[in-house]
């Protein structure tokens, strides 16, 4: 004759197994959702950073002296009263000095940050290639910034680099 308490004593183990399986299922689902969200956020941040670098490269490429039209070929329109009385001032960025090394760095930065050639596939190789190109583009941008004398002014980077003591005031850039 079967003991009626055998079923009751087995309930704890049965409920434990059911709870464990339900927890594993829920954990896998939540992990996939959290992982996808994390991946999208990080991918977006990287793509924004790449876009900023691409924008900088476009500005620098268009400021290169070798790409500027010669002054002899530029002629002001004459006899056009509308253009002479215009109050609109054209603002032009200064032309970068003629420097073949600078031009090479700017063109390399442009090629590294060009979004048309970047893969957006979610494979290990594509992500690794994207990260590598982004790091190389960041390094090129720093080199060009130093050569041109246009260091990026980001107060959060300056303030986060010191410990807040009075001696660290010298790292802050003065505003004129």
From TrEMBL:
InterPro entries: Essential_protein_Yae1_N, LTO1_adapter. Residues 69-92, 148-176 are annotated as: Disordered. Residues 69-85 have a biased composition (Polar residues). Residues 19-56 form the Essential protein Yae1 N-terminal domain. Belongs to the LTO1 family. PANTHER family: GEO13458P1 (PTHR28532), ORAL CANCER OVEREXPRESSED 1 (PTHR28532:SF1). This is Essential protein Yae1 N-terminal domain-containing protein. The lineage of its organism: Eukaryota, Fungi, Dikarya, Ascomycota, Pezizomycotina.
